[in-house]
Amino acid sequence: MTPSDPAGAELRKLPRADRLLEAADRAGLVRRIGHEAVMAAVREELDRLREAVRAGSPCPEPEVIERDVLGRLEREARGTLRRVVNATGVVVHTNLGRAPLSDETVEAMRQAAGYTTLELDLATGERGDRHVHCEASLCRLTGAEAAAVVNNNAAAVLLALSALCEARPSGDAPLDGPPEVIVSRGQLVEIGGGFRVPDVLRRSGATLVEVGTTNRTYRGDFEDAVGPRTRVLLSVHRSNFRQEGFVHEPSLADLVEVARERDLWVVDDVGSGTLLDTAAFGLGPEPSVPERVRAGADLVTFSGDKLLGGPQAGILCGRREAVRRARRHPLMRALRCDKSTLAGLAATLAHHERGEAAEKIPVWQAISARPEVILARARAWVAALGDPPGVKVVASESAVGGGSLPGVTLPTHALALEAGDPDALLARLRGADPPVIGRIEDGRVLLDPRTVPPGEDPVVVRAVAAALSGG
Ligand SMILES: *Cc1c(COP(=O)(O)O)cnc(C)c1O
After folding, report:
1. What residues contact residue 230 under an 8 Å CB cut-off, 6+ apart?
2. CATH number of the 85-95+364-468 domain
3. Which candidate, 442, 448, 372, 438, places its Cα nearest to that of 409?
4. What is the CB-side half-sphere exposure of residue 182 using CA atoms within 13 A?
5. Facing residues of 248 across strands?
6. What is the pTM of this model?
7. Residue 439 host element (H or E)
8. 265-271/230-236 β-pairing
9. Could you give the angle at which helices 17-26 and 35-54 cross, rounded to 10 degrees?
10. What is the pLDDT of residues 271-305, one digit of tens each?
11. Which stretch of DSSP H or E encloses residue 208?
């Protein structure tokens, strides 16, 4: 490159790496993320600029480069897994981590972070069993004889099928050929995030036998399909869609009857599973775990972090013998959950046992929030913003979400931001600290107080004010 080469002259304007390192150090970023991470980011930024300049772009001013590098480092220091304010109005929002936890649940998980009695029996000093910590409470709440906890409901279904396919309820010799699980064609569902019932079934080593049609399946279809290798009748809740019109499924009680007659197991994946009566909260019906246990399913499986409102977990509960088989199956070792999950789940279950779910569990607080309180909060947001033009309160709907109660909404009032490009506004709200997540409806940004804990009202107001002023 000759001195008269314009790109060469521009390249020489690039700041040196150690200058940027010093700036990062002054901003406290070296202390926060470490020397290596800072240097890697600085080198990458300089390489990127060098390439742009060679391609003909002018070199930015040194202050601009420094500001950009520090901005990038600041984002890296914050990490990628961050707290956000959920103003979407979707209560169990999968992308936002499903159920937020109660204060007591968080405290229990914090306490369990150190050494615990995870597998120690204090009375004897002998090795204990991690499954005892939630079992008694789960049994009281669901009416089940026994219960076990794994990492999520997908794991619970996999474990239930793997364990129960090994033998008939009366016990028997190994099969020649894979065991069979019978399921209705109307329940071969995909839940989202890649959970497909047929795929999970295959992983359990079983062969799937589909019966009935998409819209109508009868008890007789199950009876006709039972063969010498059949081990399990499976029922799966259609968590995220609804069938209407000319539809039929046999009842769980019917499946249990067929299973008892033919020496088979019944596994019932209820998805969310609820311990509370959803209808009492103005929601549609969702399978209640106690009812499904009462109907006689050998194993009922459901998530800990959907309508239960606790940490991510999968719960299996039902008959003693079926739970025993699940517990001692080799997959249990791979699917079991850790001490903090068990501690958090126990604390969330305690809210249910004390009958205070609606007051203490954030998911149920949001579901049961009174309409007039939501309206008052939305109005207070507008007032705190100084009632600017293009900002108003509108009637809208919140959803329960997270693969529960499809199509069911709760009436709400939301803050509507009608000025400017909604996508740009939404992006500016995501850029706030903490990020505020809203949604677009009818071409405007909506922020729903239902899913925002009242303590975060000032955070929302600050973020909206900044976003409206272009910040
Ligand atoms: C949500 C859901 C699952 C998956 O549960 P995870 O806890 O996400 O693993 C499985 N089955 C049904 C019916 C569901 O609704």
Report:
1. 179, 180, 181, 182, 209, 262, 264
2. 3.90.1150.110
3. 448
4. 28
5. 216
6. 0.93
7. strand 439-441
8. parallel
9. 130
10. 988 999 888 898 877 889 999 999 999 999 999 99
11. strand 207-211
Chain region(s) in the chain for CATH 3.90.1150.110: 85-95+364-468
303 C-beta closer than 6 A to ligand 1: yes
pLDDT band at 241 (very low <50, low <70, confident <90, very high): low
CA dist., res. 201 & res. 204, Å (int): 5
Question: Which residue's alpha carbon is at the smallest distance from atom 11 of ligand 1?
Answer: 271
Residue type, 347: A
Asked if residue 451 lies in contact with residue 374, where contact means CB atoms within 8 angstroms, the answer is no
CA distance 226 to 182: 8
Atom 3, ligand 1: which residue's CA is nearest?
271
Q: What's the pLDDT score for residue 220?
A: 92
Tell me the C-alpha distance between 447 and 90, whole Å: 11
Among 288, 326, 320, which Cα is nearest to 404's?
Answer: 288
- Protein residue closest via CA to atom 13 of ligand 1: 271
Domain with CATH 3.40.640.10 in the chain: 101-360
466's torsion region: left (phi>0), alpha (psi -120 to 50) or beta?
alpha
